[in-house]
């Protein structure tokens, strides 16, 4: 079966992150993001795609800072509320019912209750006709100790980091499950 262009996004399980920013006027902003990924390993830079008209994008351009918050699947209701298009002068943390978490290295707060908080500084914007790619540098990364071991590995089955699958009538929130297969990095190398 061939998939029509308007349905192609349905083949990708997408991560869900909350991006928190603050405006030049001190207004807190939070928005869900799925088009985001680390740029290779280790997690030093990230890239995220944004529609051209977003308060989050304006705040990143203006202040040069943002936090990538990794929510558990239990936050799905608040993620949906945060997806609404609030006016730029509205404190979205208050509207959504989220508590700010003080950041260590940058001004925008993280979101309390998340699994991890990557504080980022803006590096570069690659502007296209309909969207921009934003590249950021992770300047500080903190995690909830309840869901990470001493090596920094997430207990994802208990943490349940949020992801989603897009469908014809909307999206469905999901989280990773263990397939039972483990592999070492050396298995990827030619011998």
TrEMBL record:
Coiled coil: none annotated. Gene3D superfamilies: Electron Transport, Fmn-binding Protein, Chain A (2.30.110.10). Keywords: Flavoprotein, FMN. It comes from the Archaea. Residues 12-150 form the Flavin reductase like domain. InterPro entries: Flavin_Rdtase-like_dom, Split_barrel_FMN-bd. Its cofactor is FMN. One of its GO terms (molecular function) is FMN binding. Transmembrane segments: none annotated. The keyword Cell inner membrane does not apply. Belongs to the flavoredoxin family. This is FMN-binding protein. It comes from Methanococcoides burtonii (strain DSM 6242 / NBRC 107633 / OCM 468 / ACE-M).
């Amino acid at each position: 079966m061939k998939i029509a262009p308007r349905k192609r996004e349905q083949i990708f399980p997408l991560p869900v992150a909350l991006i928190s920013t603050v405006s030049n006027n001190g207004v807190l902003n939070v928005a869900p993001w799925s088009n985001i990924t680390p740029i290779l390993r280790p997690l030093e830079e990230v890239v995220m795609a944004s529609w051209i008209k977003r308060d989050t994008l304006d705040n990143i351009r203006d202040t040069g800072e943002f936090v990538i918050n990794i929510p558990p699947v239990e936050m799905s209701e608040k993620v949906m509320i945060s997806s609404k298009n609030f006016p730029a002068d509205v404190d979205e943390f208050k509207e959504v019912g989220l508590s700010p978490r003080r950041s260590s290295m940058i001004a925008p707060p993280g979101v309390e209750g998340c699994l991890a908080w990557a504080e980022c500084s803006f590096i570069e914007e690659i502007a296209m006709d309909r969207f921009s790619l934003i590249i950021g540098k992770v300047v500080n990364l903190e995690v909830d100790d309840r869901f990470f071991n001493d090596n920094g590995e997430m207990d994802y089955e208990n943490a349940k980091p949020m992801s989603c699958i897009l469908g014809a009538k909307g999206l469905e929130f999901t989280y990773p499950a263990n397939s039972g297969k483990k592999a070492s990095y050396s298995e990827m190398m030619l011998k």
